[in-house]
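User: I'm preparing a small set of examples for a lab meeting where we compare how different chains pack in three dimensions. I only have the primary sequence for this one, and I'd like the structure in token form so I can line it up with the others. Please keep the answer compact; I'll paste it straight into my notes.
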Amino acid sequence: MILAIDMGNTNIVIGGIDNEKTYFLERVTTYTTRTDLEYSMYIKGILDIHGIKPSDIEGAILSSVVPPLNETVRNAIKKILGIECMLVESGMKTGLNILMDNPKTVGSDMIVDAVAAMDEYPLPLAIIDMGTATTISVVDKSGNYIGGIIHPGLRISLDTLSSKTAQLPQVNLDMPKKVIAKNTIDSMRSGILFGHAGMMDGIISRMEEELGEKLNVVATGGLAPFVTPLCTHNIIVDDNLLLKGLLKLYIKNYI
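Assistant: Understood. Below is the structure token output for the 255-residue chain.
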């Protein structure tokens, strides 16, 4: 089993995975002020909860969009596992041809998603990752990563709406019963959820028009189950996409 960690701006996803199955998947909040000791306690706590011994883990890999925390988390892993943690970075073997203006600027999470998705699903693909930002990446029928979009995420949009307006409250993400809502809270839910679904549908349709062919669509991220049922496109939700991508990258780059 390897310890696979995806560090985002809001949450850090921590999972245990091998070629047979995913053993656990948990999220902790990203805080740049935490020390390596604090993160080691969180990681060890997750392992203990799931009955995983350090000796069960043969390797570790980290994907991160928060560079200031990279060494902190890698040091935390070394404290509890005694192993060096591989970091997803430019120069790694990915098996992915990245056709971008500057391939080194593509987020590591988007690369990891694409590596996993192109092995799991038919090409061409649109890959949606719903976190702090909602990203939609495209891998064409030849296996080339050809670009995508970055959009403000669902939760950050909702939090901004509440914090920047005096009379609009914080709301949860319960599924709205209909688009035309009858009160303020339901109106906010409807606007955020149906609005985000409409954005995703619209972008995918425009991508298909630009490519001249239909895209298979897969979505991942903690917020994907809230929005994909409201979309008109057929979207597969894969909660373990990032972990599977990290496992594939670990295997490709293990020396």
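A couple of notes for your slides: The mean pLDDT is 90. Residues 184-211 form the longest helix (28 residues).

User: Perfect, thanks.
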